[in-house]
Amino acid sequence: MLTNTKVYVTNFVLVGKIVAMVIVESLFENMTDQSTLKPHVPTYGPCTIRDLKPGEVKLWCTCGLSKNQPWCDGSHKGTSFRPLKWTVPEHAQTVYLLCACKYTKTSPICDATHVGLIGTIQKQIENCSSKQGHSNIGDKKLCQQCGFVPDW
């Protein structure tokens, strides 16, 4: 029996008949919904990346802790964050503006969300329900509820 299971139903038309396709997504207990996590903001602006090879697979940092932005360096270990696997598009492009604030809605491409983000992040940290624990966050690296990182 699966716990924390989401079921999606999609209808397709196949030669005049509607066929329902059921997609079951199991969320195991040791996995966290990435959309509820709040990353650290390493930079309020994009990373300008040049000379990527079409079809190349890259791991984009989602936690904001990597010292090799915008790419993952494994700093997320010990958190619930996981890097985003991104395949460089097949069409030729010389420059990519990749998100460094980690709040883009078009990951990993920058959508300029960083422009109005500073106040939002400050409020997020100030109103964090785990704020009392920020002083001794220990080896957790960051508060996943607000993005606070000690001594960044």
TrEMBL record:
- Which protein, by its recorded name, is this? Iron-binding zinc finger CDGSH type domain-containing protein
- Read off the Pfam families from this record: zf-CDGSH
Q: Does the entry feature the keyword Phosphoprotein, yes or no?
A: no
Cofactor requirements of the protein = [2Fe-2S] cluster
Residue spans crossing the bilayer: 6-28
Q: Which InterPro entries match?
A: CISD, FeS-contain_CDGSH-typ, MitoNEET_CISD
A GO molecular function term, named singly, is: 2 iron, 2 sulfur cluster binding
Sorted alphabetically, the Gene Ontology cellular component annotations on this record are: mitochondrion
Give the keywords, sorted: 2Fe-2S, Iron, Iron-sulfur, Membrane, Metal-binding, Transmembrane, Transmembrane helix
Q: Which stretches make up the Iron-binding zinc finger CDGSH type domain? A: 48-82, 85-124
The secretion signal range is none
Q: Does the keyword Iron apply?
A: yes
